[in-house]
Amino acid sequence: MRCSSLLVVLAVVLSIACGGPRMREGELFAGRPSGPPSMASMPDPDVVDEELSPRMRRAMELARDALDIAAPEPARSRAALDLTEWSEGALREWLERKTAAIEAARTELDAAAEEQHRQRILAGALVGLLYEDVLRVLRRRPMPDDLEDEPEILDVYRDSLESQARPWLETARRAYRACAANAREPESMRHFVAFCEAREMGLPSGMESGESTVEVIRD
């Protein structure tokens, strides 16, 4: 019995001494560089899920929950009154719920990113997807079709929509850039470079103010 116990202990010690993280087998999924943001868009990490910290796995669950919150049904029409009612009702309720879910995920992602470099790469990609998801909904809001003969009012309306969407764009862009910069090492995570660069390239241009921050990269 004593000999058997010693063999078990020795096997555990040897497995720790010989090891490193358990890597995924087979070809890694490179991610979906375009299309709606979702957890299914994410590339595979180079290690099995069990090698990620409990906080990182929890953060990924929260990110999935946030991404699963579907966009609201569109307004009844493109009339200004209907769009205003929709914006102050269904859209606002959705945005409040979505924002709360994203903030919960973001708290865990930022903390998990500090635990190991690999998780910093994952956190950058996930933050990018979360903010891009909201950005897409805000950018799809239509212009009122009964104000076409009021160009000045339409310009103000358009500026207001872009102002609301801009922080989401800036954070998504910065997160993808952080992901791509961090993913150059290790080589086994380098497929995240192409993914995050492609997602960033797919974001709309011309709206940035350069005032956002995201805690997934260190100098």
Protein traits:
single chain, mainly alpha, disordered C terminus
Strand and helix layout:
Blueprint: H1 2-17, H2 54-67, H3 80-113, H4 117-139, H5 151-182, H6 191-201
Please tally the β strands and state the result.
0
SSE ordering: HHHHHH
Main beta-sheet strand count, sense and barrel state: none
**CA gyration radius, whole angstroms:** 22 Å
Mean pLDDT value: 88
Describe this structure in words.
The protein is an all-alpha fold and 219 residues long. The protein has one domain (36-201). Helices cover 59% and strands 0% of the residues. The protein is built from 6 helices and no strands. Helix 2 (54-67) runs antiparallel to helix 3 (80-113), helix 3 packs antiparallel against helix 4 (117-139) and helix 5 (151-182) packs antiparallel against helix 6. The longest helix is centred in the middle third of the chain and has 34 residues, at 80-113. The chain is elongated.
The gist of it:
The chain has helices at 2-17, 54-67, 80-113, 117-139, 151-182, 191-201. It has 219 residues and is mostly helical.
